[in-house]
Design a protein that fits this description.
The protein is of the alpha/beta class. It has a domain of about 220 residues: Spore Coat Polysaccharide Biosynthesis Protein SpsA, Chain A. The longest helix is centred in the N-terminal third of the chain and has 65 residues. It contains 11 helices and 9 strands. One of its GO terms (cellular component) is Golgi membrane. GO terms for molecular function: hydroxyproline O-galactosyltransferase activity.
Length: about 400
Amino acid sequence: MESILPTTSFSSSSKSERRSKSKSSQTSKPSLVMALISCFAWLYVAGRLWQDAEYRMVLGSLLKKNSEQRPKMLTVEDKLMVLGCKDLERRIVEVEMELTVAKSQGYLKNQLKQSGSSSGKQLLAVIGIYTGFGGRLRRNVIRGSWLPNVDALSKLEERGVVVRFVIGRSPNRGDSLDRNVNEENLATKDFLILESHEEAQEELPKKAKYFFSSAIQNWDAEFYVKVDDNIDVDLDGLIELLQKRRGQNSSYIGCMKSGEVVAEEGRAWYEPEWWKFGDEKSYFRHAAGSVLMLSKNLAQYININSASLKSYAHEDTSIGSWMMGLQTTYIDDSRLCCSTSGQGKQQSVLIGLNRKDVILSRLARTTIPFVFIGAYHNSKMETSCFIPRYH
């Protein structure tokens, strides 16, 4: 009995230990599960709270934008300000329209240098005689006929008329051509040199822009006249013509013509942009020939808008195209038409002066060396014309 009792007590104690261990393991599992569940629940709640905070921020920004875009109640002062702005805007539009009209008519304040005369009196006319580097002989003949000498030029300017030979610069600036013109100008003082213009036959339409711009910047006159150097002019008759036209604004004076646009390359008077003149291929009305006159505001218009004015192959049609969009008064004067035939518009006793013996006598009165007489004898000057005096 005594040997069995200890064995029994030991086994009973081990059983009780196993029971306690099993009970503790059974109680720890549910607590672990509950801890996990509570952790997940905490993460879920935290995420929802974070998401709700973002939603609240987005909604707040939207509400702020809507409140800013919501129309406000205007006070009387605000309404008066709005009406004032509208009235100011209307006046600005009206002023812009008036400025456009003024530009189209050639008016611009402070555009002139007002250097027409020392007394400040407006001149009657500025006459520009187109010439080139090879035209010294023609210039000397003109000086020996209708163009006054240096002393007479100053007296003519006192009467309100400025006359200058108009020439550009050589493509090779400063070469012998430029030097010869400078030397001739020092002796005669009758040149208007266009420093920005390159003298060439194909550049004649651009020369018109430079001439009218330069003339109006240097002299304030009522008229600006372009004359070719292959004609002879009755200067007194021309002055009388202009005096009778005084006060006539927007005047475009010349021998008005229109005609066929030459579309065949290689023919005389070929127009590369012939397709712009329509199916009929006919030029618009323009002052053709060797003389044309523009009143001050039209010359101002060319000066102001020279950068944007389109030039065609020929000078007279180019100027005619510039006049088309303006309120221009076209004055067709047959006495400004040059003709070498008996059927020409111009019929005058002065035509008879265009004879070789008269030309030679004029050359003899000039300072040109006689070696040039033969060259002039065969020049195009023999087909020049005259502007007759008014009767």
